[in-house]
Design goal:
This protein has one helix at residues 125-137, and strands spanning 6-9, 35-40, 48-53, 58-64, 67-72, 77-82, 87-91, 96-100, 107-112, 121-122. With 139 residues, it is mainly β. A 5-stranded antiparallel β-sheet has the order 1-7-4-9-2, with no helix packed on it. Strands 6-5-8-3-10 form a 5-stranded antiparallel β-sheet. The two termini are 13 Å apart. The structure holds thymidine-5'-diphosphate (TYD). Residues 35, 37, 39, 48-49, 51, 116 line the site of thymidine-5'-diphosphate.
Length: 139
Amino acid sequence: MIENCKLIEFPQNGDERGHLVVVEANKDIPFAIKRVFYIYGSDQDVIRGRHANYNSEFVLINVAGTSKVKVDDGISQKIFDLDRPHIGIYLPKLVWKDMYDFSKDSVLLCLASEHYDAAEYIRDYETYLSLMRNNRENK
Ligand code: TYD
């Protein structure tokens, strides 16, 4: 499960005028994008996210600045550095995620496979752990 969280390197179409990074749905990332949002102005000591989603998949890209993402599948955890504007992290559904260590200039772009639905967010960690435990037992 956690091994399905993957860094994606997008080609940098750079020339003397600067860089241009393209993210095409179903090509560069493995889903159709239904929603885009971005997070900025978070202090260094803030932890965002702290949830898992029943349905949504995400790709997170620090288009400016840096942050870290800690992913957790109920058994193991892994930390990814988002520190280049052409690197994204793909997060499948049912992954617990914390975003933190935001640089002052951090702009974290989030591409999502679903429209916003508060009901598909799991925001209680104990609930998440027991859901994942049940899922493993029912496999
Ligand atoms: P929240 O999920 O807490 O952000 P994060 O996980 O990045 O810390 O969302 C903050 C607020 O924005 C919350 O009131 C819900 C709202 N929101 C939307 O209305 N639509 C969205 O697509 C997202 C991601 C959040």
